[in-house]
Each structure stands twice: as C-alpha cells, then as structure tokens.
C-alpha cells in the first residue's frame, strides 16, 4: 500500500459520555488516500473497494474506517446531506453482508491473508470492534433499536473461542486477547486488539452493560500485561508472533493516535501515556533509518534461521 506521506491521523474524540460523537482516531485526513485511489477503485454505490479492476472487493474493515471518516465530517457539518447519505449506504452494505448465527453476528474477511496463511472467509476481532462502533453511531443517528441489537450480537461473537470458529483467545493465566487474525497459535496483533477495545468502550458507553464492562476490564488488563513486549529499544513491533517492525506510517497514523486515545480514556493507567511518549521519542531520524534497514533485513534473517 502506497499511502500519501502527507496524511497524518491524530487522536480523535475521547469521552465516556453516552453520546458517542466522533471516533477515537480522527480518520478524516485519510479521505485523501481514498480520493487518490490508493486503496483501490470505487464501486457504483460510491463505496471504496480494496484492489483494482476484477480483483477489487469490498473489505469490511476498510469500510468501517471509511465510515468513521465520513461520520466525523458529517458530525461537524450537518448540512452535508451527501455524507449523511453515504453513511446509510455503508450501513446497507453491512446489513446485507452480516452473518447471523446462534453464536452471534459477524462479518468475514473476503480474501486470504498471505502473511499469516489464513484462507478467505475468516472472522476478525478488529472487524467486529470497528463495526460495533459504526453501528452504535448509526443507532444514535437514526434511533433504530435493531442497530443496537446487532451491535450486541457482534459483541456476543467476540466471546466465541478460536477453537469454536471465533476470535477469542486466553493464555495460560486466563488473560484474554481478541485476535485480528484467529490462528491456531497466538499472533497478538496490537492495533487490531486496540480497535476492538474501542468497540467495547463504545458499547459500554451506550449500554452500561455489566457483561461488556467485565470484558472491557479484562481486555485492558491483558493489554497492560502484554504492551511492553511490543516495544523494542528503537522501534515498535506489529505482533508478538512474527515480531515484525511496523512501518513509519503505522507509527504516526495508528500506534500513536491509538495510544494517545487510550491515555485519555484511561488516565489512571500511566502505562498508556508513557508508551505514547516512548514511541514519540523513538520517532527520530536515526531510529527511522535503523527501522527501515531492519524492516528489510529481518525477513531475510528469519528465512535463514
């Protein structure tokens, strides 16, 4: 993915009020990447695709993040009926593509993941969390109770263990990790887990549901335990399985906004603000150069080993 280097995402609206408002990461600047077709083409319905030509597909995570950007533009410019209409189009797509079962509601990833060797059609905690956040905002815009019901059903799917076809994993000490990539072994992808956690925060803000609060507290506890392992001395990593260094775009547009949002949401948890400060310090010319070199060297070392 060739992102526009001028795009800079920042922390969004962080609150515990029941009225959600804008998302925790301000994704409006990323609309430039969509406008420049950096993710892919657009469909006739006006929704972005991932890929080009015959290979282009709708991707639920991409659509949810596009939805946050569109929602936040509309939130600050209520006269933009075109953005309001796009939100309805996005909701129609999610409604048409949800999978409902006794275990809950989910949206599946339409293409295989080559990095983790997962075939197409897998569920993702990141998708669940982000779509929960989108549905709750549409529930508050429209007043439709069924959208809140769908968000709760998506939450129930998060409780389904990986061995049962879900996304939930527990380590030997009972710590929970909601996997972006549900592999037979732990992958522990950080950004996907945090986006899922944001969905739990939204659901608790709206419902004050005790089951949601327990899950949220357990996830925050797990994050506090594992978060230090994502920081090398010079740069953060993407997951705990492959331990791949993140790209600089990810540091400034995903990791830092996410961690700053967590620091605002959980001011009594100093680890989040300290981690954000550490990553900001690491973003210097020397460390960026070292990360660029190691980003190319690490895969060769792994193959050699």
Describe the structure.
With 305 residues, the chain is mainly α. The protein has one domain: Glycosyltransferase, CATH 1.50.10.20. The chain is 51% helix and 5% strand. The protein contains ten helices and six strands. It has helices at residues 31-35, 60-76, 81-96, 125-142, 145-158, 190-207, 210-226, 248-265, 270-282, 285-304; strands spanning 10-11, 25-26, 99-101, 104-106, 168-170, 176-178. The strands form three sheets. It has a two-stranded antiparallel ribbon with strand order 1-2.
Q: What descriptors fit this protein?
A:
mainly alpha; single chain; 51% helix; Glycosyltransferase; two-stranded antiparallel sheet; 305 residues; 6 strands
- Counting structural domains, the number is 1
Rg from alpha-carbon coordinates: 19 Å
Q: Quaternary state, please?
A: single chain
Q: How many strands, which pairing sense, and closed or not: the largest β-sheet?
A: 2 strands, antiparallel
Strand order of the largest sheet: 1-2
Whole-Å distance between the termini? 28 Å
Order of helices and strands: EEHHHEEHHEEHHHHH
What's the architecture in CATH terms? Alpha/alpha barrel
CATH topology (level 3) name: Glycosyltransferase
Shape: globular
Can you count the beta strands? 6
């Amino acid at each position: 993915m060739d992102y526009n280097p001028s795009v800079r995402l920042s922390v969004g609206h962080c609150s515990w009020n029941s009225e959600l408002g804008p998302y925790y990461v301000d994704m409006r600047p990323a609309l430039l990447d969509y406008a420049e077709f950096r993710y892919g083409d657009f469909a006739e319905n006006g929704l972005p695709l991932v890929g080009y030509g015959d290979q282009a597909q709708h991707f639920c995570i991409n659509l949810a993040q596009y939805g946050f950007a569109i929602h936040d533009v509309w939130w600050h410019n209520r006269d933009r009926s075109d953005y309001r209409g796009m939100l309805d189009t996005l909701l129609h797509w999610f409604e048409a593509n949800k999978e409902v079962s006794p275990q809950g509601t989910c949206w599946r990833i339409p293409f295989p993941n080559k990095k983790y060797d997962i075939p197409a059609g897998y569920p993702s905690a990141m998708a669940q969390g982000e779509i929960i956040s989108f549905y709750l905002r549409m529930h508050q815009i429209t007043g439709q109770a069924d959208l809140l019901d769908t968000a709760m059903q998506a939450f129930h799917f998060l409780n389904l263990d990986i061995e049962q076809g879900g996304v939930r994993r527990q380590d030997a000490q009972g710590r929970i990790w909601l996997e972006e990539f549900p592999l037979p072994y732990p992958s522990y992808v950080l950004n996907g887990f945090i986006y899922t956690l944001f969905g739990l925060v939204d659901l608790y803000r709206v419902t004050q549901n005790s089951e949601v609060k327990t899950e949220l507290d357990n996830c925050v506890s797990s994050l506090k335990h594992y978060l230090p392992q994502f920081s090398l001395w010079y740069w953060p990593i993407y997951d705990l399985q492959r331990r791949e260094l993140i790209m600089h775009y990810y540091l400034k547009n995903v990791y830092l906004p996410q961690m700053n949002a967590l620091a605002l949401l959980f001011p009594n948890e100093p680890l989040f603000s300290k981690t954000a400060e550490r990553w900001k310090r690491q973003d210097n010319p020397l460390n960026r150069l070292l990360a660029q070199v190691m980003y190319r060297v690490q895969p060769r070392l792994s193959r050699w080993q």
